[in-house]
Amino acid sequence: MTKQMLGNPKLNVTPIDSVSDGTNHIVVDSVQCGNQAMIMEKNMPVTMQDGAVLYVNAFRPNKSGTFPVVISADTYGKDNKPKITNMGALWPTLGAIPTSSFTPEESPDPGYWVPNDYVVVKVALRGSTDNNNALYPWGLSEAKDYAEVIEWAGVQPWSNGNVGTNGVSYLAVTQWWVASLNPSHLKAMIPWEGLNDMYREIAFHGGIPDTGFYRFWYEGIIARWPETHDIEDLKAAQQNHPHFDDYWKGKQANLSAIQIPMFVCASWSTQGLHNRGTFEGFKQASSTEKWLKIHGRKEWETYYARESLEQQKDFFDYYLKGIDNDWQDTPKVSYEVRDKFYQGQTKSASNYPLPDTEPTPLYLDAQHMTLNNQPIQTASSVSYDSEATENDEVRFSKTFNENTELTGNMKLKLWVSAQTADDMDLFVGIKKINRQDEEVNFPDFNHIENGQVATGWLRVSHRELDQNKSTPLQPWHTHESEVKLNTDEIVPVEIEILPSGTLFKKDESIQVVIKGSEVVKGNSTPGMSTRYEHSDTVNQGIHTIYTGDTYDSHLLVPVIPNH
């Protein structure tokens, strides 16, 4: 088994700015391995079939031989600022990100991988280099380019022919896409927290347009590449395609076409961006050899943590080097059941959703504002002003009489009406209340520390369900058309609440919040919409929720039995 080589403290680390195009002998400040000598090939051209040229950086061991390739691709720039410092002090809660100075954001760190006898290749996708090609994020054209670079990397003189993809966020999105094309040299993948349904997971939440991070992210792409004149107008796409039409379908990889081994990492904490899509990628991929790691912590901090790196390395050692390291004994699913902030228990399972999940209804009672194990016999209702600046919400609660683990999707079924409008935007939050009657906060998108257990949204006119894709705990909305409300019409809706894993101890409470605006507000810095926002709401006037008798409003929760 490969052992890391300890670095030489007498070697002087190479300044990034001193590296030039072509072959460079450099010293990298490896956090794990000390100062390490390696070779960097900067701005290597790779010509596509249509004649366009993409550029890559390659870091490789300073010795002869062939090595497996760890590759990542995005449009952020292969020479982007290291250690994600472009976020800077404006995001004070990122957590520790221990990387070498040659690590572009969200990318594999050459300071870790090269000393372990891997080649690290960083791809600048079309439109994100000095050339003036079109930049169209997250689609088939990008995937085809990525596949060509993978095939190129597989036949280089320093390659052993085995290529594995790795990376976070955009770098995971491109992995879902390229793996669906099955390039011959791609042998394994590590998609670490990345969406794959652009409509449901970033542009619209429950059919409600995201006016925050989605647009901020797009404007950031434009700001990175001012010389690239042909950048897909994602803000216009959101405005011109409010439903899940062919445009958005074209932004979605065919996950069922993925066949290679995968080590997937998902988080309970990136709801509204990466949470849902990572789980769907794992569930829908046809790969027979796949593993899922789930945590409830911060994204980049977890990706670069030593434990995570060693797990990634074991996986690639097995599939890219052929080392018998007992990787196959790794639990198919390992997941953190959160108790408090950064405190929880890691458990294992044979699959996800967890096979022994018991969908359990908790019935809403508007008369007492409680959640109950048994159906409510008496009909009642409760209302809130959806346009109020404060208290535009209602809350239903239940105290548990024994320790209860809830892991997976939840579903909230409601009977609702709007007094003076033909549509409604419903914002839903699930909260944990401790024995001291205080909310227990968790990390949440995007790296905030005042997050809740789980989140859901629905524009009521988008309530139509895809019956083939829906499951008891996960309603799947078509989002293909609108069904408006008639005056005072009472309709049933099913709201998808995103996956979470939380322990509610005896005498702790679960609380469901139904609100006319965002349940958890981000700590926005002016000009930095680093969290989802939904300011283009359809809400007007009074919203009413009906419970009891024929109105079987309930929260369906995923109870995991104690074994």
The figure for the number of domains is: 2
Give the CATH H-level superfamily of the largest domain.
Alpha/Beta hydrolase fold, catalytic domain
Instruction: Indicate the mean pLDDT.
Output: 94
Low-confidence stretches: none
> Quick one: how many beta strands?
27
Main beta sheet strand tally, sense and closure: 11 strands, mixed
Tell me the fraction of residues in β-strands, as a range: 25-35%
Shape: globular
Q: What would your notes on this structure say?
A:
This protein is 16% helix and 34% strand. By secondary structure, the chain is of the alpha+beta class. It has 2 domains: 63-196 and 254-330, Rossmann fold (3-Layer(aba) Sandwich); 358-560, Jelly Rolls (Sandwich). The strands form 5 sheets. The protein has an 11-stranded mixed beta sheet, with helices on both faces. Strands 14, 15, 16, 18, 24, 26 and 27 form a 7-stranded antiparallel beta sheet that branches. Strands 17, 19, 20, 23 and 25 form a 5-stranded antiparallel beta sheet that branches.
How is this structure best summarized?
16% of the residues lie in helices and 34% in strands.
SSE map:
Elements: E1 22-30, E2 34-47, E3 53-61, E4 67-74, H1 110-113, E5 119-124, H2 140-154, E6 159-168, H3 170-179, E7 186-192, H4 198-203, E8 204-205, E9 208-209, H5 213-224, H6 234-240, H7 246-249, E10 262-267, H8 275-284, E11 290-295, H9 299-303, H10 306-320, E12 333-340, E13 343-349, E14 358-365, E15 370-372, E16 380-385, E17 393-399, E18 404-418, E19 425-433, E20 439-440, E21 442-444, E22 448-451, E23 454-459, E24 491-504, E25 509-515, E26 542-547, E27 554-560
Parallel strand pairs: 4-5, 4-6, 6-7, 7-10, 10-11, 11-12
Antiparallel strand pairs: 1-2, 2-3, 3-5, 8-9, 12-13, 14-15, 14-27, 16-26, 17-25, 18-24, 18-26, 18-27, 19-20, 19-23, 19-25, 21-22
Helix pairs in contact: 2-3
